[in-house]
Amino acid sequence: MEYRLGNSLRVKSRGETDELVCPSCNKKVKFGVFSNFERRLVAEPKLINCNTVYFLVCPQCASIFTVDEATGDNFKQGIQHSIGNFDLKKLKEFNPND
Questions:
Q1: Exposed / middle / buried, residue 33 (Cβ in 10 Å: 0-12, 13-18, 19+)
Q2: How far apart are the C-alpha atoms of 4 and 41, rounded to whole Å?
Q3: How far apart are CA 22 and CA 78, in angstroms?
Q4: Bridge partner residues of 31 (DSSP)
Q5: 49 within 8 A of 90, measured Cβ to Cβ
Q6: 24: nearest Cα among 52, 65, 71
Q7: Is the pLDDT score of 8 beyond 70?
Q8: Over residues 14-26, mean pLDDT
């Protein structure tokens, strides 16, 4: 059994990427990068699992994508070129059963 802890008030802006091509609208844009914590209390074994979720928003078509946590952490630390076109993935919808 898991419980989701936290809320969307913890969303933080992390800046803009270099120009990338949006997979949805095929326009060259600077994505806005944001992060949020995903905290889960897992009953077996008794742990709190905490990950940082990074998501990118296209300013042209408002499509939302994500990147791996390590890639997002590099971007957060100031490595501007850490996010490229091949890093963009579809953001999974929250499923309380996962």
A1: buried
A2: 7
A3: 22
A4: none
A5: no
A6: 65
A7: no
A8: 93
| Per-residue model confidence as pLDDT tens digits over 50-95 | 778 888 999 999 898 989 989 999 998 988 889 999 999 987 666 6
- For residue 14, the number of C-alpha atoms closer than 13 Å in the C-beta half-sphere is 26
Please state, in angstroms and rounded to a whole number, the distance separating the CA atoms of residues 46 and 86: 36
Q: Are strands 12-21 and 2-5 parallel, antiparallel or unpaired?
A: unpaired
Q: What is the DSSP string of 60-97?
A: TT--EEEE-HHHHHHHHTT-GGG--GGG-EEPPPP-TT
